[in-house]
């Protein structure tokens, strides 16, 4: 999970997940890697971008449709990760779903 996601022409959707972690890993890194791997297998998944510093993490995942986002939210393994996130990994988080109507890319 590195670099800028190569998304198709709009419209599509972005799910923006911003978080502040609790102290310690407690399996977070392994679960995060598993969730990205699993997301790539989901119908309608277009890509992901993620960055984290000592305090704030932001992950943006891209999806073809609201239905694809709903299916991901309800995926059984993802539900386990969500529950652990609330119980162990996040001090605070926000989730925003946006429709992308325009994009542009620059590459040297």
TrEMBL record:
Question: Which species does this protein come from?
Answer: Paenibacillus beijingensis
What's the domain of life for this entry?
A: Bacteria
Q: Which residues form the ABM domain?
A: 33-83
Name this polypeptide is given:
JEMB protein
Q: Which InterPro entries match?
A: ABM_dom, Dimeric_a/b-barrel, Jasmonate_Hydroxylase-like
Q: Name one Pfam family in it.
A: ABM
